[in-house]
């Protein structure tokens, strides 16, 4: 058996039992693994549905351009379908999304415009507003508008809901879904509740989003809105695809818990999933008292871990946000092991001869160069030697004439792995600003000394 094109492989994703990660939940917990779709996310389903519906009623015409605001996954689904069907794509997104998502979209020929995150949806700079403006400017274009286009939830009513019902033989008791556009949870819930109204639909929200409070109070509270890191869920407005009447409860999950759980799923279940999956599983554990023995809980795993390699799967990224503390040495601990001494610097207007004397007197091999007290560069023994061999008369020249780019700065929480990777023959040290605002230098010797200590 074969498929006529890649679009025919969308859907029919596996349901996999979770074990170690949910050992504290008395129920059976199953993961709906949407990463087996060709675009590695659940958004392939609704992307294709939105295109097919638009083709059917004439909104999308042959050779047209698809313009959409997307965090990446919907864009991927649209881009893949566009390749097969002969459309162009322009996507707007926010600067909080991972670089890997943008690179993937561009790999399918899409144009990606990155917009600021921390602006209101109505702001002309927002990714919603920019995509709406482009629709007016680009001829023969169509905006799917995944938030308010009900083909989104309809795709899940027609596909995801029936698949889960059949795969669980109608035994599902709870569905857990991260809520962003609302299409997945609303469409799937509509189908499942038609089959069994007692099935509990549990939405996962994030701090900084309006969904939970709106569900519980009916009040759209702008004070609930603030920047957050978690990708793919939560919103600062109410998409038409979110049918609150179908959602029984919202559970908020913090950025930190979502990020760390994303990593735990890979380590304990061998499933390489994305950030919103971490939110969903963390939320399930927070709600464990809702479940009892004999219950059958299904959690949607929307997308793949490769989109988050630079973030949730990067230890330094986690440390810089205070999410991760482990036994590896950090810059803070390395400078704590050094003997207390003032960092030696040299002003850029001093002569090369003075630099040579300083290096000799202090028994050091490199000096940060300052200008009005600010580090602007560096000189090393090899810099001086190379310069003097070329022009022996440089001894009386200003240090700034042979200054090379400064040693890079690292965060106090930077790991020994990151620091070591930055030190090489061209860059023999790094700088770090301590808690008092003073500059410290870390060399290979300092790293070795800290490890030995």
UniProtKB/TrEMBL annotation:
Pfam families: CBS, PALP. CDD domains: CBS_like. SUPFAM superfamilies: CBS-domain pair (SSF54631), Tryptophan synthase beta subunit-like PLP-dependent enzymes (SSF53686). One of its GO terms (biological process) is cysteine biosynthetic process from serine. Keywords: Pyridoxal phosphate. The keyword Protein biosynthesis does not apply. GO terms for molecular function: transferase activity, transferring alkyl or aryl (other than methyl) groups. PROSITE patterns: CBS, CYS_SYNTHASE. Its cofactor is pyridoxal 5'-phosphate. Residues 336-396 form the CBS domain. It comes from the Bacteria. Belongs to the cysteine synthase/cystathionine beta-synthase family. This is Pyridoxal-phosphate dependent enzyme.
